[in-house]
Design a protein that fits this description.
By secondary structure, the chain is an alpha+beta fold. 50% of the residues lie in helices and 15% in strands. It is built from 11 helices and 10 strands. The protein has helices at residues 6-11, 23-39, 48-61, 83-96, 98-117, 120-132, 245-281, 293-321, 327-352, 362-371, 380-392, and strands at 137-140, 156-160, 163-174, 181-187, 197-203, 209-214, 223-234, 238-239, 283-284, 287-288. A 4-stranded mixed beta sheet has the order 1-4-5-8. A 4-stranded antiparallel beta sheet has the order 2-3-7-6, with no helix packed on it. A two-stranded antiparallel ribbon has the order 9-10. Strand 2 and strand 3 (163-174) form a beta hairpin. Helix 4 (83-96) packs antiparallel against helix 5 (98-117) and helix 5 (98-117) runs antiparallel to helix 7. The longest helix is centred in the middle third of the chain and has 37 residues, at 245-281. The termini are far apart. The structure holds flavin-adenine dinucleotide. Flavin-adenine dinucleotide binds at residues 139-142, 147-148, 172-174, 217, 223, 372, 375-377, 379, 381-382, 385.
């Protein structure tokens, strides 16, 4: 399968003239697009672990992962995480290859708690390696019985002298099985619910920590269920204060939830490019598919859905970079972009006809890639509840 066409690549940069961006953002997108066209294969191979490791190394060697961590002293591109840069990187990589986007995103999500709340020693130890692509990272929050209701997690960390002892399970952990560094959230019990959780750095190979199961999904990524049995972690590996782990997780998700919307945008833009290419070349009824108004209506709807989602996504990213709260804006962006991308990609599959469901065709791959984005980092229903809660704040009698 070919990379995205060059004329489509230029069109995909148009929105970077919007006032949310600075000139460096436009330059970043153009440079990454050119790099991805040469270095990121469009198809996934048969060994997803090896592909993912290779992508992390390539992204690190080219310097793109410096945007995934915060602090120039720790190998980061800037003093703080630049949400707009992360969104541009994810949107661009997703247009080229879902696994490349995943590899980038997980370096940021997995190390995000350290960038945002780590000690000096934790930052020095891990962030430069993550930014160079030498350490693969993972974010372990969800459990078999605590997904949407994540504050009900059961995985426990009991204090024992200068260490904590972890017991329990985590599941759906991206990069599980290939990561070197896991940021694990566990119940330390300072208070009930969300106020009794802490975050820990756990290295692969720590005694008492094992990969209980590798999980296959419709768009293959490294994914696993983790098991902790009497796993001792030095107290110095706790990130932030005891009992503050839930806040650390939510601060991390504030950045990366908006970036999920950006990845969805990248998938949707690629689907529109593919739809236009097919509609203008597929001959039928003495013309092309694009000659019919029914097709034009579909394309118009797809483009409008994409621009609406892009406006919401980059509003949220810009607002966070301005230091403002983005709870409502990030939820709107994630909901609109992921749900919209699903509709755009479905329309592209329809325009491709039988070929649209043939294994290996780009729109077929996109159809599988987009689905999980409506579920992870807060399902659409959870985003709806967040938006409504913000709307109703103070409005009830
Ligand atoms: C591919 C993939 C990668 C992932 N990677 C990670 C990772 O790296 N780290 C990590 O910690 N987790 C990860 N997850 C887990 C993910 O965050 C959870 O799947 C998600 O939070 C939903 O939890 P659940 O699967 O337990 O679904 P449940 O909590 O059982 O929810 C099921 C469905 O119920 C609906 N729902 C939820 N709440 C409400 C409500 N209040 N009202 C009405 N309906 C509701 C939603 O439609 C939801 O999809 C990943 C998941 C997937 C699929």
């Amino acid at each position: 399968m070919n990379p995205p066409r060059a004329d489509a690549a230029a069109a995909a940069l148009d929105h970077l003239d919007w006032p949310f961006f600075e000139p460096r953002h436009r330059a970043l997108a153009a440079e990454l697009d050119a790099w991805a066209a040469h270095h990121v294969r469009d198809v996934h191979g048969h060994d997803v672990d090896a592909d993912c490791r290779a992508l992390v190394r390539a992204l690190g060697a080219a310097g793109w992962l410096t945007h995934a961590v915060g602090g120039t002293a720790y190998g980061g591109a800037g003093d703080a995480i630049d949400t707009r840069a992360i969104c541009i990187l994810r949107e661009t990589l997703a247009r080229h290859n879902g696994l490349a986007d995943f590899a980038f995103a997980m370096q940021g999500l997995g190390s995000g708690a350290i960038s945002l709340a780590g000690t000096e020693a934790q930052k020095q130890a891990w962030l430069p390696r993550v930014a160079r692509g030498e350490t693969i990272s993972a974010f372990a929050l969800s459990e078999p019985d605590a997904g949407s209701d994540v504050a009900s997690m059961q995985c426990a960390a009991r204090r024992d002298g200068d260490a904590y002892v972890l017991d329990g399970e985590k599941t759906w952990i991206s990069n599980g099985g290939i990561a070197d560094l896991y940021v694990v959230f566990a119940r330390t019990g300072e208070a009930p619910g969300a106020r009794g959780i802490s975050a820990f750095i756990v290295q692969a190979g720590t005694p008492g920590f094992e990969i209980a199961e590798r999980i296959d999904v419709i768009a293959p990524h490294p994914l696993a269920r983790l098991r902790f049995r009497g796993c001792r972690v030095a107290a110095s590996q706790r990130i932030g204060e005891a009992g503050e782990g839930f806040k650390v997780a939510m601060r991390t998700l504030d950045v990366f939830r908006t970036s999920v919307a950006a990845a969805a945008l990248g998938f949707a833009r690629r689907a529109l490019e593919e739809a236009i290419a097919r509609a203008t070349s597929r001959r039928m009824f003495q013309g092309t598919l694009a000659d019919f108004q029914l097709t034009q209506a579909k394309l118009a709807q797809m483009a409008t859905t994409i621009d609406g989602a892009a406006l919401l996504t980059y509003r949220a990213a810009w607002q966070r970079d301005c230091g403002r709260t983005v709870t409502r804006e990030a939820a709107m962006a994630k909901m609109a972009a992921t749900e919209g991308a699903q509709q755009v990609i479905d329309a592209a599959v329809q325009l491709w006809g039988g070929l649209g469901v043939k294994s290996g065709v780009t729109v077929e791959r996109l159809y599988r890639e987009i689905r999980a984005l409506r579920i992870y980092e807060g399902a659409t229903e959870v985003q709806q509840l967040i938006i409504a809660r913000e709307l109703l704040k103070g409005a009830r009698a």
